[in-house]
Design brief:
Blueprint lengths: L29 H17 L6 H9 L10 H12 L2 E5 L5 H9 L2 E5 L16 H12 L2 H20 L2 H13 L2 E4 L2 E4 L2 H4 L4 H7 L4 E4 L2 H5 L11 E5 L2 H10 L2 H9 L15 E3 L4 H8 L1
Parallel strand pairs: 1-2, 3-6, 5-6
Antiparallel strand pairs: 3-4, 5-7
Helix pairs in contact: 2-5, 4-6, 6-7, 6-11
The chain binds phenylalanine and fe (iii) ion.
């Protein structure tokens, strides 16, 4: 989401008015395709038994295991048949209203560049691996696909209400870093987790973070960190339930109530929390004193 400082205020040279650019698939070098393949293999090995059923199904039906950086046109064609979504390329982060407008119209904006070989484990800006491997499989799920459309519409409304900060937290703790309780156990579905070698284990298996049952208002009050693993993960019972509660709730009065209350710090436990795992916070503590 475009809440960073390095967002331009108009489309850069060569981009359309809606900020999209050609993906220019034929311009990727063999070395760039090799970076994708390396990242893909590493994650694909890790994710069975860790990623949600819906995510793994998406990976499969979209044929993302085909070697090389996916061609957005080919990918969009498959996705379009399943849920009506498309993937379009943008030069990097785009302004919030542009992001929401695309989303509300079933266009997922993806960076077309790929990280360098020395950035396999970490980079701040979303590249094609994060955007496509991380996000796109979930777009093949009809319920999640509808959730993101509703989120795009909700974003346009939040902008008018001056409540973007609160809505952005919902995106962060679901779309980017969400966990789901499946019959076989806890699973990851957030793109920031499934696209990260280290966090896909940390989020599920490490004793450090808190894992708390998802509650809409609680989540929208909670700060988050963009520089390291989360100290808090929120667990939804199902995608149906996530869609239901977000669509059925009118956010306007909720925003007002939230704005009148203090934010909740990243690692805090709130009085009404249903805590699934009390985190030791050892990881964050060791990092802070290192
Ligand atoms: N129901 C929300 C509103 O009233 C819109 C929304 C739906 C936001 C789904 C996020 C996800 O603004
Ligand atoms: Fe993302």
């Amino acid at each position: 989401m475009a809440d960073e400082t390095h967002v331009l205020d108009r489309p850069p040279e060569g981009a359309s008015a809606d900020w999209t650019i050609p993906q220019d698939w034929s311009h990727y070098t063999a070395a760039e395709h090799a970076v994708w393949d390396m990242l893909f293999e590493r994650q694909a090995r890790l994710l069975p038994g860790r990623a949600s059923e819906a995510y793994l199904r998406g990976l499969d039906v979209l044929k993302l295991s085909k070697p090389g950086i996916p061609d957005f046109e080919e990918l969009s064609e498959r996705l379009m048949k399943l849920t009506g979504w498309q993937v379009v390329a943008v030069p990097g982060l785009v302004p919030d209203d542009v992001f929401f407008e695309h989303m509300a119209n079933r266009r997922f904006v993806a960076g077309n560049f790929i990280r360098r070989p020395d950035q396999l484990d970490y980079l701040q800006e979303p590249d094609v691996f994060h955007d496509v491997f991380g996000h796109v499989p979930m777009l093949a799920d009809p319920v999640f696909a509808d959730y993101l459309v509703a989120y795009g519409q909700g974003g346009q409304r939040a902008l008018e209400l001056g409540a973007l900060k609160h809505l952005a937290r919902l995106y962060w703790y679901t779309v980017e870093f969400g966990l789901i309780a499946e019959p076989e156990g806890l699973r990851i579905y957030g793109s920031g987790i499934v696209s990260s070698f280290a966090e896909s284990r940390f989020a599920l298996e490490d004793p450090s973070p808190n894992r708390i049952a998802f509650d809409l208002e609680r989540v929208m009050r909670t700060e988050y960190r963009i520089d390291d693993f989360q100290q808090n993960y929120f667990v939804i019972p199902s995608f149906d339930e996530l869609l239901r509660v977000t669509v059925e709730t009118d956010f306007a009065p909720l925003y007002e109530r939230i704005m009148a209350q203090p934010d909740i710090p990243v690692a805090a436990i709130a009085p009404d929390d249903l805590v699934l795992t009390y985190g030791s916070q050892d990881y964050a503590r060791e990092k802070a004193t290192a």
